[in-house]
Amino acid sequence: MNDDAIEIPLDRINPDTLRKLIEEFVTREWSELADSGFTLDEKIDQVLQQLHDKQARIMYDTTSETWNIIASH
Which of 33, 52, 67, 68 is 20 to 30 A from 14 (CA-CA)? Predict the structure, then answer.
């Protein structure tokens, strides 16, 4: 992410869309955890909780027109 990234507030994202974003993130970023013992739904719930707890943020890069979930500082 570069300086053109903006944070997308959770309350601005439709709940169904948010879940799909998190599912895509989990399957893209956590593929090595396939044998971690957590189901896809459990991983999604973990990321959603981190977002609600402000431990992670959804960022949109206006230059590349991509999004990512990153840890909060």
Answer: 33
Q: What tokens does 35 get?
A: 């044998």
The first and second tokens of residue 25, run together, are 């993130």
- Other C-beta atoms closer than 10 Å to the C-beta of 19 total 16
Which pLDDT band holds residue 71 (cuts at 50, 70, 90)?
A: very high
> Which DSSP letter does residue 31 get?
G
pLDDT score of 29: 79
Q: Return the higher-pLDDT residue of 47 and 28.
A: 47
Contacts of 22-25 with C-beta under 8 Å, sequence gap 24+, read: 22/47, 22/48, 22/51, 22/69, 25/68, 25/69
pLDDT value at residue 35: 63
Please name every residue paired with 6 in a beta bridge, in sequence order, or none if there are none: 60
Strand partners, 61: 5, 66
